[in-house]
């Protein structure tokens, strides 16, 4: 059974999966594999949407409680910089991804390409930094797995 404490790791896995799908989709379009590109991007969007649902579920179940960063000094400053940029760009990428995907699926390729050049790096950054934030909180040198007893 999946519990509320499992959701951060699931969210990190979903972010990592989205990053892999975005990268694979980008490689596919560079090779003119349009159908495969579309499938990867729809899968990336679906994975990111599932992430958003599980993230909001986790926040609702823990009633807004947040996990404080256990590190100090420079590590804390790096963490906060990553978290801030991740959070701001996560809000920005939602409408960008929706419009970019819609333009591509509707065949408005010229406008899709122009917007995708902006959307892809932001979306990829948000997906990768989502995993980094999880690692720093839960799985890395500062998280529970990395703490010395």
Structural key phrases:
149 residues; mainly alpha; 78% helix; Four Helix Bundle (Hemerythrin (Met), subunit A)
Molecular structure report:
The chain has 149 residues and is mainly α. The chain has one domain (4-139): Cytochrome c oxidase, subunit III, four-helix bundle (Four Helix Bundle (Hemerythrin (Met), subunit A)). It is built from four helices and no strands. α1 (7-30) packs antiparallel against α2, α1 packs antiparallel against α4 (109-139) and α2 (34-61) crosses α3 (73-105). 22% of the residues are buried.
Work out the radius of gyration.
17 Å
- Provide a count of the helices: 4
Q: What's the overall average pLDDT, rounded?
A: 92
Series of secondary-structure elements, N-terminal to C-terminal: HHHH
State the fourth-level CATH superfamily.
Answer: Cytochrome c oxidase, subunit III, four-helix bundle
CATH architecture: Up-down Bundle
Helix content: over 70%
Number of domains: 1
